[in-house]
Design brief:
- The complex is a heterodimer of chains A (278) and B (382).
- Chain A is 38% helix and 18% strand.
- With 278 residues, chain A is an alpha/beta fold.
- Chain A has an 8-stranded mixed β-sheet, sandwiched between helices.
- In chain A, helix 2 packs across helix 7.
- Chain A is globular and about 70 Å long.
- The termini of chain A are far apart.
- Helix content of chain B is 37%, strand content 21%.
- In chain B, helix 1 packs across helix 2, helix 1 runs parallel beside helix 6 and helix 11 crosses helix 12.
- The chains are: A alpha/beta (278), B alpha/beta (382).
């Protein structure tokens, strides 16, 4: 058996009814693969991992893998995750969201989880569209593109998810693509080991709902687009604004240290205990 | 463990304070909330108390997040609660349904204030009764309890936690502004005088654990995240393993079990207090702070020789039909006083089926219902 197949069988739920819900060519499997590889390299115990998701195609991701898994309501994954982490800080809490999930309906929770620096990892799979509901425009659908609810063109401006995370206070922010699979593996591993709120934005394609409507071709063509438009942050530093015009950066955008919520709360507990009159 | 020194001494407390004491006595160790009048004291006191006892308090960004965190903490093993008022309670409805369908124990306190919308933030109301019952979408059973006094706020919150743990369900404590902010001297019970129930956890080897398998009680043992029973929790309708299903032969038994676990336990969850109802010709049916006014009115009427009685509903849902029917079947007339346009009176009329004459007394001006108003009705009907 190939190494990768062994890994799949090690973490896949064998009692789950398959097939999965994703379209052929979907990037979600690559993201899940990257997460599994990072978990395996870091030798986390399955019992210690809680994988939490919201609603949408990304929301279905945890059900396939053999951890403690929690498929929450739309946009609310980070709120459930906050409760899990605070009640049992020893657990490794991983949250998977989509672009609409994390930055539209869950936008408020996203910025506040970052601001609190609650120590969990947020993986945001950004495919620029609401895929599961049929291709409506999301907060990351680029200006001028088409969607079922923007049949003429999208006149809203897209969120830059990674930049939003940086501004909101996330201590680790990375951006990768499903094309750059090895970089993605590394980014996710880095986010997992980071103390505090770590974010990895993963640029992926929805050829079914977004690509087709915008004449971007099939999954392969769209991954080719990722290859051609992604620039390493290190390289981007030496490039002009003009050169970066239709590009996006990938790599580690921020890696910094700030007080971590659960550790701070432990100190609050000590303070509170000392305040009890004896 | 050595018996702790009794703390039993009279204390001057408000309803919200007693509610917190009840929550802590029941084992609440996680609270997430968002500031709102008239529930904020609950947050403030717990922010102070929980970290002293290895518990956790967090103020979230809104009420949606608050109930989300409460559900998450409960899945990780902590007895959890949130507290709010009408507007925040509306925001919680979505995840309340999640807690129902994923069978996550938790307690949601709604200190009712005048509505709709921002309404009357510092005035009492009982306008959220039907919201508590039907606020979240989809068919679901729910347990709703209403305290009527400061001491009640303690006892009923303990009950709420016990029900939520025993039946793996969210329980709503429907307090009101009068109950929450009234200060009175109460004696609270010692910890060893209180019955505290904990959820049943799986005891079989993890590989044998089927997380949503039916049991005689309808309540499956609950695996706790991190304890070795890895399973899937979802708001989608799921099969006995917790995986999403669209098979009719799996959906139906699941939905039926959700209802059955509550419906076969009416004897446990339906709490009512009878006050002079045995020979009562005029029956008042009341709950919350109004029940106290009603009690006074009944006493005054009895002094006048009027055969009045009070059926005090503590459990609003599942609606205590059997008690109501038995009490009103021989009554000349029934009064349901409420600080709303008639929410529980709808239920009373529904189960009455023409047996008795049901009158309502509705107050929606932000004031409580006084004993005098109820007494006047009793005099008129006598």
């Amino acid at each position: 058996m190939a190494e990768i197949t062994k890994l799949v069988h090690k973490y896949l739920r064998h009692d789950k009814k398959f097939p999965h819900v994703w379209c052929p060519g979907c990037g979600n499997g690559i993201v899940l693969g990257a997460m599994i590889r990072a978990i395996d390299r870091l030798a986390y115990r399955k019992d210690d991992i809680v994988m939490i998701s919201g609603i949408g195609c990304s929301g279905r991701l945890p059900v396939y893998v053999d951890f403690n898994t929690l498929h929450t309501t739309h946009g609310r994954a980070l709120t459930f995750a906050t409760g899990v982490k605070l009640a049992k800080p020893e657990l490794k809490v991983i949250v998977v969201m989509g672009d609409g999930d994390a930055t539209a309906i869950g936008g408020n929770h996203f910025i506040h989880a970052a601001r609190r620096n609650i120590n969990l990892t947020a993986i945001i799979i950004n495919n620029n569209i609401y895929g599961m509901t049929g291709g409506q425009y999301s907060p990351t659908t680029p200006y001028g593109m088409k969607a079922t609810t923007a049949p003429y063109r999208n006149i809203e401006h897209a969120f830059n998810i990674a930049e939003l995370a940086v501004t909101a206070g996330a201590v680790f922010v990375g951006r990768g693509t499903v094309y750059h699979a090895r970089l993605l593996d590394k980014l996710i591993e880095k986010a997992f080991v980071k103390r505090g709120f770590g974010v990895v934005e993963v640029i992926t394609h929805c050829h079914t709902q977004y690509g087709r409507r915008n004449r971007m071709g099939d999954a392969v063509a769209m991954m080719q687009w990722q290859k051609e438009h992604a620039v390493r942050v290190e390289k981007a530093a030496d490039m002009s604004e003009e050169e970066l015009k239709d590009k996006f950066t990938i790599g580690v955008l921020v890696d910094r240290d700030l007080p971590v919520y659960t550790e701070q709360y432990e100190l609050v507990r000590e303070q509170a205990r000392d305040s009890i009159p004896s | 463990m050595a018996r702790k020194k009794s703390k039993k001494k009279p204390r001057l407390l408000q309803g919200n304070e007693a509610l917190v004491e009840g929550a802590l006595a029941a084992g609440c160790r996680f609270f997430a909330g968002y500031p709102i009048t008239p529930a904020s004291e609950i947050s403030e006191i717990l922010a102070h108390r929980l970290p002293q006892m290895e518990g956790t308090f967090i103020q979230m960004e809104d009420e949606i997040a608050s109930i989300g965190a409460v559900i998450g903490a409960s899945l990780a093993g902590a007895k959890s609660m949130t507290a709010t008022s009408g507007p925040g309670f509306s925001l919680m409805q979505e995840n309340l349904g999640f807690a129902c369908v994923a069978e996550v124990p938790c307690v949601i306190v709604n200190v009712m204030r005048g509505g709709p919308s921002t309404g009357l933030p510092t005035n009492p109301s009982q306008g959220d009764v039907l919201q508590a019952r039907w606020g979240t979408h989809g068919d679901h059973p729910i347990i709703v309890l209403a305290p009527s006094s400061v001491r009640d706020s303690f006892d009923i919150t303990v009950k709420a936690f016990n029900f939520s743990e025993r039946y793996r369900t969210p329980v709503i404590v429907l307090s009101d502004e009068v109950v929450a902010h009234t200060r009175e001297t109460v004696v609270l019970p010692d910890p060893d005088e209180i019955e505290v129930l904990d959820r049943i956890k799986p005891s079989m080897p993890p590989e044998w654990y089927i997380p949503y398998e039916d049991t005689s009680s309808g309540v499956p043992p609950m695996g706790i995240f991190g304890d070795g029973y890895r399973y899937h929790v979802t708001g989608l309708i799921h099969d006995i393993r917790g995986f999403p299903t669209m098979r009719t032969d799996e959906i139906e038994p699941f939905m039926r079990r959700l209802f059955r676990k509550i419906n076969q336990s009416f004897h446990d969850v339906q709490i009512v207090h009878h006050f002079m109802t045995e020979d009562a010709e005029l029956v008042v049916i009341a709950y919350g702070s109004v029940a106290r006014s009603a009690r006074r009115a009944v006493l005054d009427a009895r002094e006048k020789g009027i055969k009045a009685g009070l059926l005090h509903l503590v459990t609003l849902y599942p609606f205590p039909r059997r008690d109501v029917v038995a009490t009103i079947s021989d009554a000349k007339a029934v009064l349901v006083p409420e600080m709303n346009m008639g929410q529980i009176s709808r239920e009373v009329k529904r189960v009455n089926e023409g047996m008795s004459r049901v009158a309502t007394l509705n107050r929606i001006d932000g004031s409580m219902i006084s004993p005098q108003e109820i007494y006047e009705w009793l005099l008129k009907e006598a």
